[in-house]
Design a protein that fits this description.
6-stranded antiparallel beta sheet; alpha/beta; 5-stranded parallel beta sheet; 38% helix
Length: 316
């Protein structure tokens, strides 16, 4: 597609990773790279050698698009709300005193000679790594298990019904025939409705020799206060507690979490966030996302003064 005169153009680059490049926008939502950039960076952008829909550019994350009229009299910066899904593996999990026992136990189960898993109950405060550990275990189990068996993980939805997939499994137990393990993340304190679903699923998994893995913020003593029968069954297997890390480990986790998002967090910023803002890992992740967006919008590096500025404006 030929370049369109007086059209808006954009400088697009991967933040902190790739050099900037230029493209032309047209009224139909298509764009093409400027010749000089396409030639100069042809080895990097070999796949983008023809006009492509703007939507297809969203695969590059994170992105910054700067738009300007030909007069260059005004400039605005649009930060696209893109994120890379987290990769939960044992290799990228930071092991510390609070999760060492759980990590060791779960990894040893992956190499169990009989290949039979016990029921597993993970519990701990929010931000202690239960989700990471549960996903990592299921991922590695899937990689090593036989093709005819597999593991499945269920994550509750933000809106009601939160456990729609559990309702489906309880209504159709045959869907669990090929399961070696079923993992359920972020299970709240059990009420009567959720308890009845779990009981049906537990009984079916037990009959086919599969394991039920549950991650919860609730301690075993308060997990199922109204149904001791269900509670004793779910807790009949391996019960593992995860505890929060110390501040130096929190800073390591924060740094790694930021690098996974292609965000640079100086050590003094990590120390300020951990000691002044929050010690909850999930809350720290939310703060990193805010800092990333605001630093791009304001064209400033992430520093302690920037954090204090955002605090004054009640943005952080």
């Amino acid at each position: 597609m030929p370049a369109v005169s007086r059209a808006r153009y954009a400088l697009l680059y991967r933040y902190g990773a790739l050099p900037q490049r230029s493209m032309i926008f047209s009224s139909d939502g298509m764009c093409s790279w400027r010749d000089e950039y396409q030639k100069k960076y042809s080895n990097i952008y070999l796949l983008i050698n023809r006009p492509v829909p703007v939507k297809s550019l969203l695969q590059y994350s994170p992105l910054i698009i700067k738009t300007s009229r030909s007069t260059m009299s005004s400039m605005m910066q649009l930060v696209l709300p893109l994120s890379t899904p987290p990769r939960y593996t044992f290799d990228n999990l930071i092991v510390h005193e609070g999760n060492e026992v759980a990590v060791t136990a779960l990894r040893s189960l992956l190499f169990s000679p009989d290949g039979v898993l016990p029921h597993i109950f993970l519990f701990g405060l929010p931000g202690t790594g239960k989700t990471h550990l549960l996903h990592a275990f299921v991922t590695e189990w899937e990689q090593k298990s036989a093709p005819e068996t597999h593991a499945r993980i269920i994550v509750p939805q933000r809106t009601e019904p939160r456990f729609e997939e559990l309702e489906e499994l309880a209504a159709r137990p045959d869907l669990m025939d090929s399961l070696a393990a079923l993992a359920i993340d972020d299970v709240p304190r059990i009420d009567r409705e959720l308890g009845s679903l779990l009981l049906v699923i537990y009984n079916k998994l037990t009959r086919v020799g599969a394991a039920l893995l549950i991650a919860s913020c609730e301690s075993p003593a308060h997990f199922s206060p109204d149904d001791q029968h269900l509670r004793s069954r779910i807790l009949s297997g391996l019960v593992l507690e995860l505890t929060p890390p110390e501040d130096p480990v929190r800073m390591l986790i924060l740094d790694k979490m930021a690098r996974d998002k292609n965000v640079r967090i100086p050590r003094e910023v990590a120390g300020y966030l951990v000691t002044r803002k929050s010690r909850n890992i999930k809350e720290l992740e939310r703060i990193v996302d805010i800092l990333d967006r605001k630093s791009l919008q304001l064209k400033r590096r992430i520093t302690v003064p920037l954090i204090k500025l955002l605090e004054e404006d009640s943005l952080l």
